[in-house]
């Protein structure tokens, strides 16, 4: 893997003594989408802030597109686009000027066609002459995204980009993420909307208490750590399970007509055949059987609980 972002033994300790990052190492490939998951205070935003030069690391190294973020800050930062959590915009500037100004800050020549394309893609073109303070919260979030894309970054950080925004913007955001990825842009996002990470990420990282618990291909992670469940619908409800079935750790729903059996799909023996036989022997007639895979959210919650 050719890493466009290379993080080695990164630590960050604040003056209060709080250690926000504890020896984080991570390599991110060009053109991939990495979802970074973790509870509030886990270290997600601190890591992004260090990479983007907003705060200095205590120790460790980070390179972006081969540029060290300390020794070659300007070159490294020029490759990065950042959509922060906080909406901080000049209230009396108009939308088009705000986006064009950010492009100029990175030393890029004026490109009206490029700015127009970005604004149109984010449904901001009709608002190009409006002052920022006239916009809704969702529209201001779109302006932040436009600013981050204005200088054509190779790496895009999205720090909780769709938190508190409307469904339409969320859909637009993920459409744009897909288009950028097709163009070779590397995307790192933090999100509390785990279903979105599950839908679009190539790899998933889980961070907690400043430590990177794992980084793994999303499909591999779900296959390795996600359990499967078999839902067994009975023809007649039962008030209690027969003693002969006690070894299966079955869960009975409130109505007593659905039993849940958890098993490891990777195991040599799942126990399903024997369970179905024992159900029949116990006089429980099966109406229907369904299976489901654990979601990424369930896996994430389990990992964080283990690390607590």
Short descriptors:
single chain; 308 residues; alpha/beta; Rossmann fold; Alpha-Beta Plaits; 6-stranded mixed beta sheet; 4-stranded antiparallel beta sheet; 33% helix; elongated; P-loop_NTPase; ATP hydrolysis activity; AAA+_ATPase; ATP-binding; ATP-binding cassette domain-containing protein
- List low-confidence stretches: none
CATH-derived architecture of the largest domain: 3-Layer(aba) Sandwich
The total strand number stands at 14
Number of structurally distinct domains: 3
Characterise this structure.
The protein has 308 residues and is an alpha/beta fold. The protein has three domains: 1-79 and 153-222, Rossmann fold; 91-150; 226-294, 2-Layer Sandwich (Alpha-Beta Plaits), CATH 3.30.70. It is 33% helix and 28% strand. The protein is built from ten helices and 14 strands. A six-stranded mixed beta sheet has the order 6-7-8-3-9-10, with helices on both faces. Strands 2-1-4-5 form a four-stranded antiparallel beta sheet. Strands 12-13-11-14 form a four-stranded antiparallel beta sheet, with helices on one face. A hairpin with a 5-residue loop joins strand 12 (251-252) and strand 13. Helix 3 packs parallel to helix 5 (137-149). The relative contact order is 0.14.
